[in-house]
Structure formats: structure tokens, C-alpha cells
Specification:
Elements lengths: L21 E9 L3 E3 L5 E8 L7 E14 L7 E8 L2 E6 L14 E4 L2 E7 L6 E11 L4 E14 L1
Antiparallel strand pairs: 1-10, 2-10, 3-9, 4-7, 4-8, 4-10, 5-6, 5-9
């Protein structure tokens, strides 16, 4: 195994090399299950975060160990996941399960969704990141279960 040791890394012009580092992090996890037959978005979980810097990069990750969508009528079924910052929609993953369900296909499809969002930050105001989901198509329930988590990281 090799080891590289240096005292400093600089740009060609002599300025400091801009390494980013994690300057803040918050995580929330639940083993609760969320089920809906509604075509309206339902709250899953939310996390409040106050950035340390007004010039950082915020990275948001949401995952559910298992998402399931079913359909008993032979039509398509779709699970949607939406990410909000306060009341502003950041992401609407319109086909979070992106599978054909119904007809000659299986009556139930499961998957592990990951929704990632990155944004520049220009203030240190507290904000709330929220995840919602719905059954967009089909006539049976959509569920998120078996370990649902949010991780927010702030990079300098």
C-alpha cells in the first residue's frame, strides 16, 4: 500500500486549492410504514435544517428501503415522490417506481427509491425539507416501508 503525504496543495496561480468539506449534517430515520390509496400527496417525513454558511452546497438524500405499488384492474400504477423546501417544490419524481403494473404484468412491484437534490445556498435561514408521496395511477395502495430516511449534508 502507498501513502501520499503533502503539506499543502495549491492551484497553478499559487492560490489555495478549494477542497470542500462537510460542515453540517442532519439525518432522520423511521421504520414506520406509510400507505395511501389517495392520488393527493401525503406527508412522509420532514427535517428542519439551518445552514452554517451562506455560500455552501446543500445535498439532500431521501430513500425508502421498500416502495410498493399495486394494481388490481389491469391498468398502470405509478408511485410519485415529491420534495419540498418550505412550501417550494424542488423535485416531483413522477415515476418513482417506473414499472408497468397491470395487464400481463405483475400485480405488485417493489423497489428502493432514492431521491437526491443538490442546491447552492445563499443564506443561513432555517428551512424545512419535506418528502411527500402519492399513488398517481391505479386503484390499490402505494406504500413506503422498511426503513425510510433523510440525510442532509452541507458542504463548504
Amino acid at each position: 500500500m502507498s501513502t501520499l503525504k503533502v503539506n499543502a496543495i495549491t492551484e497553478v496561480d499559487g492560490s489555495a486549492f478549494p477542497f470542500g468539506k462537510v460542515i453540517g449534517q442532519v439525518a432522520s430515520f423511521t421504520t414506520s410504514a406509510f400507505n395511501t390509496t389517495s392520488s393527493s400527496f401525503q406527508d412522509v417525513m420532514s427535517v428542519d435544517y439551518t445552514p452554517s454558511s451562506d455560500s455552501s452546497l446543500i445535498v439532500f438524500d431521501f430513500s425508502a428501503a421498500n416502495s410498493t405499488i399495486g394494481n388490481a384492474s389491469g391498468n398502470n400504477a405509478t408511485l410519485n415522490i415529491k420534495l419540498l423546501k418550505d412550501s417550494t417544490q424542488l423535485i416531483n419524481a413522477t415515476n418513482a417506481t417506473d414499472f408497468a403494473v397491470g395487464g400481463a404484468e405483475a400485480d405488485r412491484i417493489s423497489g428502493t427509491p432514492l431521491v437526491r437534490h443538490m442546491e447552492g445556498n445563499d443564506n443561513t435561514n432555517q428551512r424545512t425539507y419535506k418528502v411527500q408521496f402519492r399513488r398517481a395511477d391505479g386503484n390499490t395502495s402505494a406504500s413506503l416501508s422498511n426503513g425510510i430516511g433523510i440525510i442532509i449534508r452541507e458542504y463548504s
